[in-house]
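User: Teach me something about this protein's shape.
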Amino acid sequence: MAMRDNYWLFNIFEEVWNRHFGDITQANDIKIKWGRMARAQLGSIKKRKTGLGKHPETVITINGLFKDLRIPEFVVIGTIAHEISHYAHGFSSPLKKKYKTPHAGGIVRNELKRRGLEKILKAQKKWLKENWQNYIKENFPKKIRQRRRRMRIVVKWI
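Assistant: First, the predicted structure itself:
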C-alpha cells in the first residue's frame, strides 16, 4: 500500500496556509506531523513548550490513517484547514482568542467558507459520511479486549 510521507504533509500544509490563510500572522513556529491512527479524530492542534523563543510552538497532528492514498487528498486538506482555522482564532496559538470556544456556532465552517474552502468542506463531509465507517471496518478492526484475571493472594498465619 502506497503511503504519504512527512514531506508531502508539510507541502500540503504550506499550500493551504499560503493560498487561504496568508493574511494570518504566524506568531510562533508551527509544526505538522502524522499522528496515531484514530477512528474518530481527524486532526488536532496543541501548544508545546520549547526552550526556544518567547512562545511555545504549535503542533498540528493529522490522523495517521490519512497516509493511505485511498483517502482523498481533499479530506486531508479539509482537516489541515480546519486546524489552521483554530490557530487563526487564537486556539493553541499566541494570537488573541476571537471566540469563547473553538467550535461555537459553526465558526470553523464559516471561516473555511469565507476563505474559499467551501467545495473542499462539502466534498470532505460527503466522503466521510459515505466512506469513513467502511474504511475503518476494513482497515482498522476493533481489538478484542481480553479481561485480566486478578490474582488473589491469601496469606494464612499459623
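Now, about its shape. Residues 19 and 136 are 31 Å apart (CA to CA). The radius of gyration is 20 Å. If you'd like, I can walk through any region in more detail.
User: That's plenty for now, thanks!
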